[in-house]
Amino acid sequence: MTLTLDTAGTAGTALDTDLGAVVAEQPDPLLFATVSGAHLYGFPSHDSDVDLRGVHLLPVDALIGLREPEETRGRMWDRDGVEMDLVTHDLRKFVRLMLRRNGYVLEQLTSPLVAHTTDVHAELVSLVPRVLTRHHAHHYRGFAGTQWRLFESGGELKPLLYTYRALLTGIHLMRAGEVQAHLPTLVEEVPEAPARLPGLVAAKAAAEHGPAEVDIEEVRAETEALHAVLDAARDASPLGEAPDAHDLLHDLVVRARLVAF
After folding, report:
1. Nearest to 17 by CA among 39, 105, 164
2. Residues 105 and 231 in one domain
3. 192 and 254 part of one domain
4. pLDDT of residue 167
5. Which of 116, 149, 181, 188 lies deepest, with the highest CB count within 10 Å?
């Protein structure tokens, strides 16, 4: 299976590689694999690497024996001139991450850039609304802060776009109860999105690690204002205080393992 997507600003990028072959090479069954990173966020460069994220399913003996289970696997390599970065978690670990205020795994789970899917993937996606809480705002606040510090230290455009993206994703999530990671879409959905963002996205397409041609005090003021918007959206959010899908996810983990093995 070749994943070729001509939407969301991905045409002509590294997504024209054969991701199905990557999936087939994995040692244990994959329940899903999606593309994350700049391709998902809507601002890939022509030489952006492909960030594949997903869930594998360990056999029962890997979990009940004396050896430590390989709950997380990571691999980076070059495939036909494209840098590939694959990270997968065993289903049990991934579900535990879902039940925390971890927006990152929810973005992976709901990514529309799907290299491999199963019925378990679809069931996990269906339960996302039941794990969302207003406390996910803290995840996006923290991620934006980390990226801003990277921008301040190096002046690159990439972490600045990551800063804006995280804040707008958090604001949209608090208001709409929906995980939306695609920055060009967020620009349309969030009224407070700065007018400069389409231009920054276009600049990022030309260079993966280019400098940000911006006035740092202006963008600092914009991001600080977005932090305040995120805080207000969290306080007014209709989302609850805690997930209510624990039992459903427990049953899904048990059922998936029993069916597979």
Report:
1. 39
2. no
3. no
4. 98
5. 181
Close Cβ partners of 30 (under 8 Å, ≥ 6 residues apart): 23, 54, 55, 56, 57, 88, 116
Contact between 53 and 87 under an 8 Å Cβ cutoff? The reply is: yes
39-83 pLDDT per residue, tens: 999 999 887 889 999 999 999 888 888 888 999 999 888 877 778
Domain region containing 119: 14-131+245-260
CA-closest candidate to residue 210, choices 155, 143, 252, 153? 155
- Residue 148 in any domain: the answer is yes
Report the DSSP pairing between strands 72-79 and 82-90.
antiparallel
Which stretches of the chain are assigned E, i.e. beta strand?
30-36, 50-56, 72-79, 82-90, 114-116
pTM attached to this predicted model: 0.90
Q: Could you tell me whether strands 50-56 and 82-90 are parallel, antiparallel, or unpaired per DSSP bridges?
A: parallel
The CATH number of residue 109's host domain is 3.30.460.10
Angle, to 10 degrees, between the axis of helix 103-110 and the axis of helix 136-154?
Answer: 100
If asked whether residues 123 and 20 sit together in one domain, one would say yes
Rounded CA-CA distance 234/203 in Å is: 31
In terms of residues, how long is the chain? 261
